[in-house]
Amino acid sequence: MKAKKDGKIWGGKNNIYTDDSDLATASCHSGAQVAGNVDKVVVEIVADQGSYPSLTQNGITSNKYGAWKGAYKIIGVPTTKVTDPDMSKYRSKNGEMVIVRVTGRTSGTVYGQNSSYGYMDKSDLATAAVHAGLLKPGETGTLYVRIKSGSEKHEAVLKNGVQSRSYGKSEGTFKIRKCTDITSLPETPETQGILEVPRRPAATIPAATTLPPPLCPMLPATCCPTVDRTARFILSR
User: Fold this and answer.
1) What's the pLDDT score for residue 228?
2) Is 132 exposed, middle or buried (0-12, 13-18, 19+ CB in 10 A)?
3) Which of 75, 133, 169, 224 is most buried, judged by most C-beta within 10 A?
4) Burial class of residue 208 in the structure, from the number of CB atoms within 10 Å of its CB (0-12 exposed, 13-18 middle, 19+ buried)
5) What is the predicted pLDDT for the residue at 180?
6) Higher pLDDT, 37 or 55
7) Burial label, 39 (beta-carbon count in 10 A; 0-12, 13-18, 19+)
8) pLDDT at 97
9) What is the pTM of this model?
């Protein structure tokens, strides 16, 4: 997706925008991209935030709005694709996001998991993916791993049949996500992240069949009532 500054966006607090905000501009507003650059951007579909304040940053001022039908959050730009799942090798590269393909398993060792820091970087990534519910044992998938700083402690957590271990202070941690890669779709305004969906209720909204299925969650719920709008991730073109 090519970042730009001239699209319409609403919100931006915590990198969350209304789901009809121009994605290429929101990415630039959030700081994930620089205008004119072409990158892949990881986006999380989230629930309506109730209100979207105007925010000026990175040379762009967003619009404010009240409650809306849905939203998305700019997660970031993956920096590189790696084959080594040992995340401790990326320690100190805080904030970077790497792409790793693994097959889920339950035989590895996992340390902790909390909402702020995730797993200690010595944790087995394939087992952490099962623990987090992103993969099933034996299932292969692509993960987007955010490298983070260390944590004061890691508590043991039992999830999805995997028991993580407790640990004291660590030097590095990581958080993981599983995303749907739509980069193989045909070149259209939608796959470029430029969603030409009218914002106001009075406007005519295109039928859901006119967009590729993976992007359907970005439309108002009335167009795609069967889609879970709060549990999808996409990777923009």
Assistant:
1) 35
2) buried
3) 75
4) middle
5) 56
6) 55
7) middle
8) 83
9) 0.57
Whether the pLDDT of residue 220 is over 60: the answer is no
Query: Scanning the structure block, which residue is given the tokens 């987007």?
Result: 144
Q: Residue 227 CB: number of other CB atoms within 10 A?
A: 18
pLDDT at 80 over 90: no
In order of 15, 25, 46, 143, 207, the CA distances from 57 in angstroms are: 11, 12, 22, 29, 34
How many CA within 13 A on the CB side of residue 217?
A: 20
Q: How far apart are CA 107 and CA 92, in angstroms?
A: 27
Residues in the chain: 237
User: Cβ-count burial of 177 within 10 angstroms (0-12 exposed, 13-18 middle, 19+ buried)?
Assistant: middle
- 65-104 b/e with 16+ CB inside 10 Å = b? beebebbbbbbbbbeeebeebebeebbeeeebbbbbebeb
DSSP code for 29 = H
